[in-house]
Design brief:
Blueprint: E1 12-13, H1 19-27, H2 38-43, H3 45-48, E2 51-54, E3 60-66, E4 69-73, H4 81-91, E5 93-97, H5 99-107, E6 111-114, E7 120-124, H6 125-130, H7 137-149, E8 152-156, H8 162-176, H9 182-191, E9 198-204, E10 207-218, E11 221-229, H10 236-247, E12 254-256, H11 264-272, E13 277-279, E14 282-285
Helix pairs in contact: 7-10, 8-9
């Protein structure tokens, strides 16, 4: 670990060379927090300014900034009380705290609050496939409209279709006129084999129109990191979501579609799929007198 990840208080940017160390550690986690995969911290390293450091006892510290406010994350456990207090003093807040860890921090006297904008949305894979009942009536109608209107085909997203998926991403970017997660999404397509992401690409009327890319987060949960599509085919994304859920191995009974980041439109979209629950996350601070 020391060779690729410096000892605290030194930190280093996240690199691909760190994957052999970090990926096995992330795979042992069971909380289902979408931030805690190597692919996520690597692809969004520029967005959040992620840096990594090794703590005593084999623990890993991840630091970053949101809108200029420093934070830290401890996905694999807490250091001793003295060092933990030092981290809170240096980095202001602890982010992506699970419910279990939030309770532990509260017991130690820290202030803990829900971070609603970063709750991960959880869905039943079976419900996403069946779309049965009144609550999915509109979604199912849109899927039926799509399948009854267009010629379509879905294929596994392999290297053969990387250029096609990049074309979808560029078309999506032009339509949205903003960056959002464009850079991370592009790098994910360029490196999906190296960081072990998998997904599907969908062709409509003979042209690439949408793709989904994600990974196993826990043995029962698949997380969707990116889903992009062009806007001219009505019902396209509803069809893609259902189709991809239908080809996932049945062991993934939960689909994690990550957070809404406080975006009202994104929140409405994610809620319209009737989540079965959330991976709740918290922020922790030193209590103010």
């Amino acid at each position: 670990m020391r060779e690729v990840i410096p000892l605290y208080p030194e930190t280093a940017p996240v690199t691909l060379e760190m994957r052999p160390v970090l990926h096995p550690l992330f795979k042992k986690l069971t909380d289902g927090v979408s931030e805690f995969s190597f692919a996520n911290i690597y692809l969004f390293r520029a967005t959040h300014g992620y840096r990594v450091s090794a703590l005593p006892g084999g623990l890993i510290l991840i630091t970053g900034e949101d809108k200029g406010r420093p934070f830290f994350m401890l996905p694999f456990g807490f250091p001793d009380e003295r060092l933990l207090l030092e981290l809170f003093t240096r980095f202001s807040s602890m982010k992506a705290v699970s419910g279990e860890k939030a309770a532990m921090l509260a017991e130690q006297g820290y202030s803990v609050t829900e971070d609603r904008d970063n709750f991960d949305y959880l869905y039943s894979r079976e419900e996403m496939v069946e779309l049965s009942g009144r609550k999915f009536h509109r979604k199912k109608n849109l899927v039926n409209l799509f399948t009854g209107t267009y010629n379509y085909e879905g294929r596994p997203l392999t290297m053969e279709y990387r250029k096609d998926s990049l074309g979808v991403l560029e078309e999506w970017r032009a339509a949205h006129m903003e960056e959002n997660d464009y850079e991370a999404a592009k790098e994910a397509l360029l490196l999906f084999e190296e960081i072990e992401l998998c997904g599907g690409i969908y062709f409509v009327e003979g042209r690439p129109a949408a793709y989904i890319l994600g990974e196993e987060l826990t043995p029962e949960m698949f997380v969707v990191h990116f889903e992009k599509g062009v806007g001219e085919f009505k019902g396209l994304m509803q069809f893609v979501n259902r189709s991809f859920a239908s080809i996932l191995p049945v062991k993934y009974n939960i689909i994690n579609r990550e957070q809404d980041l406080g975006n009202a439109g994104l929140r409405q979209s994610k809620e319209s799929y009737r989540p079965i629950g959330f991976v709740k996350k918290y922020r922790a601070h030193i209590k103010k007198d």
